[in-house]
Write a structure and sequence with these properties.
The chain has 203 residues and is mostly beta strands. The chain has a 6-stranded antiparallel β-sheet, with no helix packed on it. A 3-stranded antiparallel β-sheet has the order 1-2-3. A hairpin with a 3-residue loop joins strand 1 and strand 2. The longest helix has 18 residues. The chain is elongated and about 75 Å long. It starts with 7 loop residues before the first helix and ends in a 6-residue tail after the last strand.
Length: 203
């Protein structure tokens, strides 16, 4: 039986792969993966992948791969921003059966940033100023941009967290007046983006 040439599997119990290789031109190479617990997230974990090429021996590729993995886990934080289905805003919905609709994130939202910079992050919600029914649950209605000063470090979609059905008007069988005919005409809408202030958890 041929032993696994990825020596990290025998050194670090958090390592679970991935691929070794060697050619004359590329030298000794290693793609390695490690999965370790995520701080402040019950049952959470994060995975980092390192790629090392061009080393002269198996031992060096192992050492350099471990250095990269340890550096990533030590000097970068992965932060959970929002829970699955978390509401970020409840804007008005035009022609909706309900006057408002809940919007937010469909899944748990994470971001990885340099260690200690989480407290500087500011989320900016951009959405259409006018939401018109019907809107389907899961339909994207905006975007959250995660800012560190003037730098955008992340972006993720904002969706409708519930159905936004159209309000059904009562139709009377009567002679339509010119005013009624005007009201039945399609409404032309110009969509503009607006920004809302939303908050992040304290890191």
């Amino acid at each position: 039986r041929q032993p696994n040439r990825n020596r990290l599997l025998y050194i670090d119990p958090t390592v679970d792969g991935v691929k070794t290789g060697h050619t004359k031109s590329a030298g000794y190479c290693l793609i390695s993966s490690a999965k370790r617990p995520l701080a402040n997230v019950p049952n959470g974990s994060r995975r980092l992948v390192s790629i090392v090429i061009g080393t002269s021996t198996e031992q060096i590729r192992t050492q350099e791969s471990l250095k990269i993995l340890n550096y990533g886990f030590q000097f970068f934080d992965t932060l959970r921003l929002y829970d699955r289905g978390q509401v970020l805003a409840t804007p008005d919905i035009y022609k909706g059966k309900s006057g408002t609709i809940k919007i937010g994130v469909a899944d748990e939202t994470f971001v990885t940033v340099p260690k200690g910079t989480g407290g500087r992050l500011k989320p900016v919600l951009e959405r259409q100023e006018l939401l018109i029914a019907p809107i389907a649950a899961g339909q994207q209605v905006g975007t959250v941009k995660l800012m560190d000063g003037n730098n955008k470090v992340g972006e993720f979609p904002v969706v409708a967290l519930e159905e936004g059905p159209r309000m059904m008007a009562n139709i009377l069988e009567c002679e339509q007046t010119p005013e009624a005919l005007v009201l039945d005409m399609p409404l032309e809408v110009t969509f503009e983006k607006i920004t809302d202030a939303i908050t992040l958890p304290q890191f």
